[in-house]
TrEMBL record:
Organism whose genome encodes this protein: Halobacillus amylolyticus
Domain of life from the UniProt record: Bacteria
Protein known as: SpoIIIAH-like family protein
Record has Transmembrane as a keyword: yes
Entries under Gene3D superfamilies matching the protein: Stage III sporulation protein AH-like
Length: 180
């Protein structure tokens, strides 16, 4: 238990240091704008109303390196916490056999999801040399964001096919983030 608390504390301190350095070095005095998915959908529908092509959505004006790093860090912390909880259930003396089996299954699923995301990021980057690719697999959707100034429909279809090959029949959300 002490090791888990130490790891958690070090992770939080690392996050604090990274965010502090970012805040101190950001040119806009640390003002960041994160766009929620509902705001993205609203912006996309407004783009359609204005006659713009909203099939490929630009998701934010924050530096793509910072955005990708922040999303990756948030995903990692969230999954690490979930993994810690599942490991605690598996190590618990009060948990039933069924609860331990479910925890083991969820842990395997989480590790499988991480592996598939990493494979997809490398595969997509290798196909068309994007500067960066971010794959986030959720319960019922896989979100793919590529760092590129534009994304053609054929590139979008190719990415969707790669995701389908790796994850099976699941909805795929493909977006691009322009480079600066």
């Amino acid at each position: 238990m002490v090791k888990k608390q130490t790891v958690w504390l070090l992770t939080m301190l690392s996050l604090l240091i990274v965010l502090s350095v970012y805040y101190m070095t950001s040119p806009d005095n640390g003002e960041m704008a994160f766009i929620q998915d509902t705001e993205l959908e609203q912006a996309a529908s407004e783009g359609e109303m204005n006659g713009e092509n909203a099939d490929d959505t630009v998701i934010s004006q924050v530096s793509t390196d910072e955005l990708f790093a922040a999303v990756r860090l948030e995903m990692k912390n969230k999954r690490d916490k979930m993994e810690e909880q599942l490991n605690a259930v598996m190590a618990s003396t009060t948990a039933t056999i069924q609860e331990k089996a479910e925890a083991t299954e969820k842990l395997d699923s989480l590790q499988d999801k991480r592996s598939k995301e990493a494979i997809l990021e490398k595969t997509i980057s290798a196909g068309v040399p994007y500067e960066d690719v971010l794959v986030r697999a959720e319960e019922n959707t896989v979100h793919v964001t590529v760092k590129a100034n534009e994304l053609s429909k054929s590139q979008t279809r190719e990415i969707m096919q790669m995701v389908s090959d790796e994850f099976g029949d699941i909805p795929v959300d493909v977006k691009f983030q322009p480079t600066k």
